[in-house]
Amino acid sequence: MDKKMKAISIDKITPAEKIEISELPIPNVKSGWVLVKVKAFGMNHSEQILRLNEINADYIQKPVIPGIECVGVIEDVSDTTLTKGDKVIAMMGGMGRSFNGSYAEYVLLPAHHVFKIESELNWEELAAIPETYFTAWGSLFECLNLKAEDTLLIRGATCALGYAAIQIAMALGIRVIATTHREDKFVLIKEADEVFLDDGKLTGRIKGVTKALDLVGPKYLKDTMTAVNKGGIVCQTGILGGVYALDGFDPIKDIPNGVYLTGFFSNYPTQEVVDDMFKFFYNKKIVPIYGKVFEFDNIKDAITAQDKGAVNGKIVVRIGRG
Fold it and tell me: Dihedral of CA 201/206/210/216: which sign?
């Protein structure tokens, strides 16, 4: 008889109240893939979109176990170069959409999206890292080429990605300006050098910005581009504003002369970048930030909290105590 594991599996629109834990067979390994025993995972807006809308798309394997990231240990190495017991993080590459993801006790993953780590952080802290900190890291360094002399604007900073970006930038001694559209959220980004209430127009209100990480997205992107200095770089990574495209966007007219627009797509992590991140975290004594931890048996409560926006920061789900 196949050994079983606890998992969340969905095949249709699934709001929090419809979440149920199932028992499914532990996956069998195959060439180029490894079996990971999941210790914890972070929850993402991406998975909420999947549950509440995207699950109907033809390109989604159904039924599917959601989850685009996890941390854990290698249970079965298959024919890869990893070793049983290796501590790993995994993210993206089709997790939770093209194949089953991490909302489970075990997950079968392509080895090229599983990354060995060495860290003394606990599982909950590690679970806050993969997608969130990798995206912050790539946005700040690969796209914005962030330097110590920069002034960084983080627009839409009161989200897990925003907190991570503030933390990384502040560790470099960079001047950080953070925004939120709600005054009662100011306390959440108080570590920034300046905090602004975002009413949709920052141009003329802020000065000296050389780099901007826009997490609101197309809703305010044109204003972000006119709010930075000439020669500045804008990286659009988030879509918190709920607008997914620039209607009638004219690059010649809408991108100011001498301003550079880029975006970060997090689907291609590498071991080299993961190594660089963890070395940085160790050297700068960075402990990842998360909002609240739930046990896997209480994942319905975690998803309810996600759907209600009841947690400030990353929601982490822990599986077991070991």
Answer: negative
Mean pLDDT (the chain) is 95
Give dist(CA 97, CA 285) in Å, integer.
34
- The burial class, CB within 10 Å (0-12 / 13-18 / 19+), for 184 is exposed
**In the 8-state DSSP scheme, what is residue 87?**
E
Q: Looking at 255-308, which runs of residues are DSSP E strands?
A: 260-263, 292-295
Spatial CA neighbour of 165 closest among 187, 184, 180, 146: 146
- Rounded distance between C-alpha atoms, residue 223 and residue 189, angstroms: 21
What letter does residue 18 receive in the DSSP assignment?
G
What angle, rounded to 10 degrees, do the helices at 130-137 and 160-171 form?
50
Strands (E), 2-68: 4-8, 21-25, 33-42
| Global pTM exceeds 0.90 | yes
Q: For residues 72 and 66, what is the distance between their CA atoms, to the nearest angstrom?
A: 16
Q: In the predicted model, what is the mean pLDDT of residues 155-169?
A: 95
Tokens 């998360």, located at residue: 290
Residue 321 pLDDT > 70: no
218-248 tens-digit pLDDT: 999 999 999 999 999 999 999 888 888 888 8
309-320 pLDDT, tens digit each: 899 999 999 997
Single-letter code of the amino acid located at 183: E
**Of 70, 121, 73, whose CA–CA distance to 288 is shortest?**
121
